[in-house]
TrEMBL record:
Domain of life where this protein originates: Archaea
Gene Ontology CC annotation, any one: membrane
Residue ranges annotated for the Cation efflux protein transmembrane domain, each copy included: 8-220
GO biological process: zinc ion transport
Full protein name: Cation diffusion facilitator family transporter
InterPro entries, per the entry: Cation_efflux, Cation_efflux_CTD, Cation_efflux_CTD_sf, Cation_efflux_TM, Cation_efflux_TMD_sf, SLC30A9
Membrane-protein topology: Multi-pass membrane protein
Length: 304
């Protein structure tokens, strides 16, 4: 089983090494697509650092100030990463590409072999990081019973895993675009291809930022469990002996592995106090059986 923390750590190590190599290649050749790749990798490094900070803060547990714990720290930092880092890095890449287009002229007479070497190594690292994050997504898909990777992206409540997996995918695509742009510019002498590659990479980054920010937004404001999980909870509660009616059910994700469940249940009116307590415990057990992440369960008993 591949944990989200392992996915993030692998991405951090790969991105740090790649960022340094890309910047050196840019200094030696001046290709703007290499500079945009550097922007991406630097954003990636900061991204993983913030996600790891979110992990640490989310594990501090409940306190007087945060009675339900700090699980949503991961949602917040994932949002910050997507909006500030990927948005800014994407804009910077588009700006550099546009500036190169405006400058016009032909490509400088330089040996771009180092670009191919750096990007080739980057492709290997990014591909491994993508493979690792794919394993994490596959684990999430199987655990939650999602039908496809697209459904996993749409319904997963683990923004750190989504961010790492999506940015690794975009990184592989971005490296391919950079290689193509540098190759075409080197062959034709027209800087337009290198500049266009930088713009495409920037647009990919901004698209990633928009998609992930939208997913994080829903979790920050208080998203509940999936429709499938809600139906399972409702059926489980109604199946408990001495439960007459489920009057209300509300859920909210407090973190990737923490779910709050509050329900208003009408029990059989002739239950004794001990019987009522035992039935409430049975309702809680039924909820946990359907949603193991449910660690905050509140049952309001209605006996009339």
């Amino acid at each position: 089983m591949v944990s989200t923390r392992v996915v993030v750590l692998v991405s951090l190590v790969a991105s740090t090494a790649i960022a340094i190599a890309k910047f050196v290649a840019y200094l030696l050749t001046g290709n703007v697509s290499m500079l945009s790749q550097t922007y991406y990798s630097l954003a990636d490094v900061a991204n993983q650092g913030l996600l790891l900070l979110g992990f640490r803060l989310s594990e501090e547990g409940a306190s007087r100030k945060h009675p339900f714990g700090r699980g949503k720290e991961q949602y917040f930092f994932a949002f910050v990463v997507t909006v500030l880092l990927f948005g800014i890095a994407g804009f910077a890449s588009v700006r550099e590409g546009y500036a190169a287009l405006e400058a016009g002229g032909g490509a400088a007479d330089v040996n771009v072999t180092i670009n191919y070497v750096v990007l080739g190594v980057a492709l290997l690292f990014e591909s491994y990081a993508l493979y690792t994050s794919y394993g994490g997504m596959q684990t999430e898909r199987e655990a939650k019973g999602f039908g496809s990777m697209f459904e996993t992206f749409r319904r997963s409540k683990d923004p750190s895993l989504l961010t790492a997996a999506t940015e690794n995918f975009v990184a592989v695509v971005g490296v391919g675009v950079a290689i193509l742009g540098i190759y075409l510019t080197d062959r034709t002498g027209a800087v337009v291809y290198d500049a266009a590659a930088s713009i495409v990479i920037g647009l990919l980054l901004m698209g990633l930022a928009l998609a992930l920010a939208w997913e994080s937004r829903s979790l920050i404001v208080g998203e509940g469990v999936t429709r499938r999980e809600r139906i399972a909870i409702v059926d489980a509660i109604r199946a408990v002996e001495d439960v007459e009616e489920l009057l209300d059910l509300r859920t909210m994700h407090l973190g990737p592995e923490s779910v709050l469940v509050a329900c208003d249940v009408r029990f059989r009116p002739d239950l004794e106090t001990t019987e009522l307590e035992r039935t409430v415990d049975a309702v809680e057990d039924a909820i946990r059986e359907q949603v193991p992440e449910a660690d905050r369960i509140y049952v309001e008993a209605e006996s009339v």
